Sequence to fold (429 residues):
Amino acid sequence: MTKKKQEKRDIEIEYTYLKLGYKPKEDIICLFRIEPASGYTMKKAAENVALESSIGTWTTIPEKKYMMHLGAKIFSIKGNLVKIAYPSELFEKGNAPNILSSVAGNIFGMKAVKNLRLEDISFPKSIVKSFQGPFLGIEGIRKTLDVWNRPFLGTIVKPKLGLKPEDHAKSAYDSWLGGCDFVKDDENLSSQDFNKFEARLSKTLEARDRAEEETGEKKAYLVNVSAETEEMIRRAELVKKQGGKFIMIDVVTCGFSGLQTLREANLKLGIHGHRAMHAAFTRNKKHGMRMIVLADFCRLIGVDSLHIGTGIGKLEGDIKEIHELEEEIEYNKNRETQLRLAQDWYGIKPTLAVCSGGLHPGHVPFLIRHLGRDISIQMGGGIHGHPDGTRVGAIAARQAIDAALQHISLEKYAERYPELRDALDLWEK
Ligand code: CAP
Ligand code: MG
Fold:
C-alpha cells in the first residue's frame, strides 16, 4: 500500500485510544518520543503503542463493556512527543515489574514504530503510596555519617577485581583515613574465589571500625550483595548481623524485583544503587528509555543513593541532563518541562545523587558548581591512582572539596597542599 493510501486508511480508522485533551487524574503518565515506521502516521503509531501497553492487541477482539475505561489515553501529541495516560487500576499496586511490563514492555519491538523512547514517567498518589521509597534518604544518610553541609566523598576499591580480602580491606582503611566517607565495592565484585563475600565483609567492617576509632568520624562500607535474589538477602542479613549499615546492589542486572525484594526485606540498611548495564537501553537518544525513568523506579522502590553520572568524567552524559536527574531523585516535587513530567513524591524520601566514573580532584569545583552539596563525589582511579597512593589520594580529594566550598581555585589551594598539587599535576596537565 502506498503511503498516501495508508494515510487515507488511517484517517478512516476509528481511534479507540486517542483522547486528545483528556485531563489525567489518578493515571500513570508516560512521555514517549515516537518515530513511526514507514507507512504509519503518528496517530496510528501512537494508537498501537497505547493499545499494546494497555488492554488491546493487534486485531479486534470482543471486549467487555466493563473494562473499556482501562484503556490507555493518548492525550497530547506535539511533534514526536506523545503523552499517554494509564488509569492506575490497570496496575497491581506496589509491583514495579508489572508497571514496566505494560508501559515499557512489548512496545519497544513493535513494527508500527521505527524508534520509541520513554522519556519520562510520572506516578499518581495511589501508586507512589504503594511503595516504600528509601529507608534513609539524604537526611538519614547525613545523620548516619554525621556529615553536614558538604558533599560526601566516596571511593571504589581498585583494582576493581583481583584483590584478596585483606588487601581490599587495607585499601578501604587507607581511603577512610585519608578522608573518604564511603568506600564501595565495584559493580562486578561479588563472591569470586579470589575474594569471597564473607571474608571481605568481615575484614572490611573490621577496618571500618578501626578507621572510625582513629579518625573520630563515621565511615560507611557499601558492600556489593548483588547475586541471585535469595542469596542476596542472605548476604544482606549477614551485613546487618555484622554491624554494617549499608549494602550495594546493581539495580539493572539484579532486576527490579530483586531490588524490591531486597528493600522489602526491611533490614534497615541504606541501599546504594549501581546502574551497570543501564546504557544498553538509555544511551540511544531515539530508542529505549531515558535514565530518568530508571531513576524514578529506583527512588520509588527505595534506593538511598544512586549513580547519576558526572557530565565531565569518563562516561557519556551532559551536565544539563545530569542536573535534571539530580532534581528528579532529590526534590519532593518536580515541575513539568518539555522533556519531563511533573511529579509529586508524596513524602517518599529523596535519593542521594552519586557522581562517579573517571573523576579526579580537578573535577570537584565543576560538580559542586552544577550540582550543589547534596551529592556524593566518588573517585576510584582518581584516588587510588595518586602518585603517593590511596591515603594521600583521598586527602587530595577532600582538599579539593574544601577548596571548592571556600570558593578558592584548586591551583591557589594547591600552593599550600602538596597532596592536591600532585593530583593536579598528574591529571590536569
Ligand atoms: C568508577 C566506577 C563506576 C562508574 C560507573 C567504574 O570508577 O566504579 O562503576 O562510575 O558509571 O568502575 O568506572 P572510576 P556510572 O572512578 O575509577 O572511573 O556511575 O556512570 O554509572
Ligand atoms: Mg565501577
User: Anything to note?
Assistant: The pocket of magnesium ion (ligand 2) is lined by residues 156, 160, 186-187 (CB under 6 Å).
